[in-house]
Write a structure and sequence with these properties.
homodimer, alpha/beta, 434 Repressor (Amino-terminal Domain), Rossmann fold, 3 domains, six-stranded parallel β-sheet, 11 helices, Lambda_DNA-bd_dom_sf (chains A, B), Peripla_BP_I (chains A, B)
Chain lengths: ~325, ~325
Amino acid sequence: MATIKDVAKQAGVSVATVSRVLNDNGYVHGNTRKLVIEAIQQLSYKPNEVARSLFKKKSRLIGLLLPDIRNPFFPELARGIEDEIQEQGYQLIIGNIDEKYPKEMDYIQTFQQNNVTGIITATNLTGRSHYDDLSSPVVFLDRTFNDHPSVFADGIEGGRMAASELVKRGSKRITILKGPAQLQTAQDRFNGAIAWLRAEKVDFSVIETSSFSFSDAEMWAKELFEKYPDTDGILASNDVVAAAVLHEALRLGKAIPEDLQLIGFDDIPLSRLLFPPLSTIRQPAYDMGKEAAKLLIRLINKETHFEKNIRMPVMFIERQTTRKVEENG
Amino acid sequence: MATIKDVAKQAGVSVATVSRVLNDNGYVHGNTRKLVIEAIQQLSYKPNEVARSLFKKKSRLIGLLLPDIRNPFFPELARGIEDEIQEQGYQLIIGNIDEKYPKEMDYIQTFQQNNVTGIITATNLTGRSHYDDLSSPVVFLDRTFNDHPSVFADGIEGGRMAASELVKRGSKRITILKGPAQLQTAQDRFNGAIAWLRAEKVDFSVIETSSFSFSDAEMWAKELFEKYPDTDGILASNDVVAAAVLHEALRLGKAIPEDLQLIGFDDIPLSRLLFPPLSTIRQPAYDMGKEAAKLLIRLINKETHFEKNIRMPVMFIERQTTRKVEENG
């Protein structure tokens, strides 16, 4: 069976030129076009999967806004979205907001100008009324905002779960790293944890943090052990921060999980590669991406009668920064 | 000074509507438009940075193709590109190839259809003649391909450096994790290492690997210690693989760096958070991104007389998976 390369060879042109003819996109000289079409006919060339996609006049684009692609949680969301939309013939383009408002505005404008069919946003920024009047549907992912369609993990339950698993395993002097104040998801985790700890009358201390970045995480970790050297159980605001805390604890010679237990949040791919492997509250990032894509496509297709705010379950992943329940006297 | 929010409030519309008026983009009812313009005049509103960018009729887009956004090396490249192009008034949109040829073709087509001004690609795929005839300039990043413009780190020197640092610190039975065969950069590191080891007549073994993914990395790590339990020095194909090797070594109870030394490649943000922190060969990812952006903009501006293939220096980052030179007898 003839391939696009055979066609290019027969016509004496490049594969890209054949693509442009198939796709009717970009300039191709009239004579060249004729040569390509003749070659297609002579070879009875049938476009394969790639070429078929090139026949489509215009890709259907979905735009994704991520707050910081360096945080490994977000690429997992993107992968879930991609796998879901690809089956439906959509393509994903990603903009990295980098937590800057002008960038976010620029990307929203770019997406609109390029006629994206829909937008999925994991913006960190508050005052998001700029999403109110867009012509394309918008889904908030890992975020909630008023009554906008959204997919998010159950942070309150996650916080409660993390706190109760620590206490169940014997921690008595808990320290909580409280995530960025502007992030509802981070506050949900925090509120879920402290509500449970208060109800159970367990002592706890709080370290305030303002970001999830790798470099800041090292700073919070140091601050934590300076302020609360005797803590025996730590709830980290996410897995990146947990990795920094684990590092600092081992550097200080603490035995983990014997002297100190630690639970993260997210379950990013690196968490199982840490040593000891990190116990954490898993957010189903990949599945959250898939659900957001499904929700967006329903909005695009103007379907009715479906749930517009999807809360995804979280799960305790027991690894080795927490003790076994039976070991706790 | 009046802000866009004040204008929106005065006109009784959303900020997004004001943006659309400023930007002349998307439908705004004639009466609404009038209200907004009146409010702008009444308040003597001067567009700030955001609004100014909204005035621009069309963003100038640069498209970036990444092989796998889950590998933390690639987001660093993206950040370098972003910071460089932003000053020049460009915006970056990212496509994740996911190491699949049809996806790559789709993205190239999408970028062309949306009139991207230039493309930066870190494709893993061979047979890349589809880049030959594009109407926009292309820069290969972390890759080289024939005589196409490119920015890449000096992998041969990196491999040599890693091997010599291990041997200098006393390792005698080296194992090399050889990265994916289709990746020139991975092969350069490998070739640089073995050329030096052969010249110095140092024994070494090789484990072949076919990807850099987190899940595969655990498999290679297990295979390595099953086949070569006595190895005392490991060159990992990148830092993700090194993290998996470190994990497995600690699980097996090896003392690091006393029994076993380990050097990674890349210096991703997580490497310093491992425990012990990972010694590695640093690729200047962020700066590589910046250089690729500069090169692309030179090509876009049709400048002449500049270097089209830029080899960036690598550097040994000494942390704690290698011994101090003076400790080695």
